[in-house]
Amino acid sequence: MEKNIEKFMTSTDCPVRNVLDRFGDKWSILVVLVLGEKGTMRFNEINKTIGDVSQKMLTVTLRTLEADGLVSRQVFPEIPPRVEYELTHLGISLVPHIHNLAAWANDNLGEIRTSREKFKV
Amino acid sequence: MEKNIEKFMTSTDCPVRNVLDRFGDKWSILVVLVLGEKGTMRFNEINKTIGDVSQKMLTVTLRTLEADGLVSRQVFPEIPPRVEYELTHLGISLVPHIHNLAAWANDNLGEIRTSREKFKV
DNA sequence: CCGCATCCGCTCTGATACTG
DNA sequence: CAGTATCAGAGCGGATGCGG
């Protein structure tokens, strides 16, 4: 960071592009947040908690998070099948940062809304 | 937060959905980061610093950030025209949080990459 | 119960050309 | 210099149906 921001930005190793872009999708942050809050959860539990995520997107999101090493997935060979998800230490280490962002969002939502309204005119 | 996460998640007022979704686009975070680093900047300056953003997307991104009240836009009626952008106090207040995230990304990029490689197999 | 496969619409993004 | 306009492609995300 600091003064090397130019190099930093254009580099293909830029952490912002490589990592944060991953959370630019619609659900990743929410899933991490939910798992951080609740601990271990089953697939349908996550689905219900978030509410309006489709099965497909939740699957895709969980797979991506698993690939990134943020979420662990444990399948129990039972009938009916049971699959439990929880955050890895890596995922857990991310939670406070997301909480901070969420808190910021919460604190400033009013001002942002006001600004958006004004801008319409 | 805390225990009301269910309500929190499903609410249409959920700050995560309303605010953070806004930064899910490809460039907003980068623009805020760059402006936070450099202070006041002209359009082409931002364009060059980021490197591979198209003129169109930079315009759209800046307009959105302006609408949200994170960035201020000042036009100087000269020829050739000059337009300067800088963060508002709201935008500035967001920067540290993004820095934290970027730092996290930087610290854990290696581990995430390793995990992604492993997952391929 | 979990989740993959398919299809499809829609949004986002970029390339290009043009204007004050 | 700082945009706007238009067009076209890619990929996200949802609905549905099927399978272990």
Automatic annotation (TrEMBL), chains A, B:
A Pfam family matched in the record: HxlR
GO molecular function, one term: DNA binding
PROSITE patterns linked to this entry: HTH_HXLR
Domain HTH hxlR-type, first and last residues per copy: 14-113
Top-level taxon in the UniProt lineage: Bacteria
Keywords: DNA-binding, Transcription, Transcription regulation
Entries under SUPFAM superfamilies matching the protein: Winged helix' DNA-binding domain
Aminoacyl-tRNA synthetase recorded as keyword: no
Protein name as catalogued: DNA-binding HxlR family transcriptional regulator
